[in-house]
Amino acid sequence: MPSSRSRLIENAVVRNAGDRKTRLLDKAFAFAFKGLVYAQIWEDPVADMDALAITPDSRIITIASGGCNALSYLTADPAHITVVDLNTAHIALNTLKHAAVRHLDDAQVRRFVAQADHPDNVALYHQRLAPHLDEPTRRYWEGRDLTGRRRIAAFTRGFYRQGLLGGFIGAAHIVARLHKVDPAEILAAGSLEEQRRVFDERLAPVFERPLVRWLTRHPASLFGLGIPPAQYEALAGGHTMADVLRERLEKLACDFAVNDNYFAWQAFSRGYGRADGAPLPPYLQEANLPVVRARLDRLDLRHANFTHVLAAAAPASYDRYILLDAQDWMSDEQLTELWTQITRTARPGARVLFRTAAAPSLLPGRVPDALLARWTYREAESHIATASDRSSIYGGVHLYVLAD
What we know:
Mean pLDDT: 91
Helix content: 40-55%
Number of strands: 7
Order of helices and strands: HHHEHEHHHHHHHHHHHEHEHEHEHE
Number of helices: 19
């Protein structure tokens, strides 16, 4: 019998109106998604904060994922952030990161959370963090994974190599090395021109290889990116998936300086850089850690369905909504229910930010016109947010603002 939490994930992903093959693929993804998917979130919080225009009065609700963005939003000084996720592992990870920021000094936070591979991190967990964690979180981290190792031990061998995405990136590195390419070569580039040369000469040709084109034809091959079958179809958009992935990697490799893009370090070296001044998420940056620690009580972490949290909230409860790419999974009925609750709980001037696998917004024609008419699509700001998102995974970043 599946647990109620498992059913929450399955209900969010499985398209019951689909054929048998569609439902089986969706169920397979739902099963994979029950574990850790993202060790870090793959949406750029700097692009988010620019688009959201957060103020000291802002009350934010966001999907948690790996937890980096909610913590980073604290640097913008909002009044409150509700952080929601269906995934038990993500809730445990968010709780652990919050405890690390609160109870470790700055150097220990960098060792435990940023480097995340120090041999003494398990001892640090037991001495400084475990006494402050709730029982479900301790049970998760002190429990064993499928290999029989305690999950907390991942912080001694490279935590950012863990989870579905960490495994996918590791597999991609193996495939690249089979073709005699080391993805980390690009991190030594001293300019955007040099990054372009390395991409064109070394990385791009890998996407033409028969093995890569064959692997990426199958929706299950992208489960490691956290992409369910429904989103795979939107991401492909009539193109071969190898070409789509090449295009997204090109943006990551060529549009932003690698010395200012921690997403590039995660993709090409499977962890954050170690040198002084290496790029890090805002919440881990030396100047920001004390500020984030002081504002940590403004975060309210909930293991729940996003729409259900809104349904239980009072009118005019929030003015900033961050949906990540969750709408790519949703049916028209689910989208309508979500936007009904967003509109009911929105304050004047509220902003909604979300990402899509394909470039266009997915709302027109799927959410009732009368409901969507309450919102103004900020096309120019959406284009800026898309172009400035250093993670480079998504086709579009979209901003809607509640109309007057």
